[in-house]
Amino acid sequence: MDGGPARSITDAEVQRFRDDGIVHLKGVVGREWVEILARGVDQSIRHPGPRHTVQTREGEKGFFLSDICMAQDIEEYRTFMLNGPPPVIAARLMGASRVNFFADTLWVKDGGTDKRTRWHQDQPFFWVDGPMCVIWFPLDPVAKESALELIRGSHGWGKSFAPELSRDGRDLYAAPGPQTLARMPDIQADRAAYEILAFAVEPGDCIAFHGLTVHGAAGNASARRRRAVSSIWMGESARYAARPSPGRPHFEGHGLKPGDAMDCDYFPRVWPRAEPLDPSALARFADSRLKITK
Questions:
Q1: Alpha-carbon distance 155 to 21, whole Å?
Q2: What is the mean pLDDT of the chain?
């Protein structure tokens, strides 16, 4: 099975990613790869992993589940992330000579779930500076009113905002140690001040965005469950970086120091690849990341 995208990514799409920090890529993931990822997601829903969070709290309508680093535990995610289209897409968009895998995240909202995913940037959650591409893969059709929302050009604001946890709005870095990042503006209260993009998507599409692009997601107004997986990729100049306190996820045991390249067994180099990774390589990848903490 070919591990590349189902179609070529155009120069115009690459330019859109660089200028806007966002691009909607239609029909870039083949059906076989969608089915592999969907099997992994359904396993996560049936048996949530040790790092999962139920984002809906008591009294909130619906059900909102998130999980992180599923590829560490479930082979379907590993196969999709390491042998499938994502790293090829990330390399093309970033113009990278090398791509390393950082993490994957799961987002499941049942129909009728009101709770939003808070406005945030992904990269401040992670101990990484430098080029980062996030690719969001839907596993169900998603109408525009229930879709991921992203602020055009926000990757160029020159700001990193304090990560806020979607479940309760807590500032991840508030303690211990001094807070060095500003809180995210109240975008919901002033939506007209921003150019907010949203796209109706189908399985086989993806939305790719820069690690500093500000984004969030509406509740799920439809009657059907909405499943999506994000994957996070680093270019060759990405470097390990310090944050005010442990991030989410916080990886342990990799031995990296601030300023080191994010290129080691812990964050495997998956592009370019001369041939697909074999099952034993996938198993070694999982074993190398067992020290991750939530």
A1: 6
A2: 90
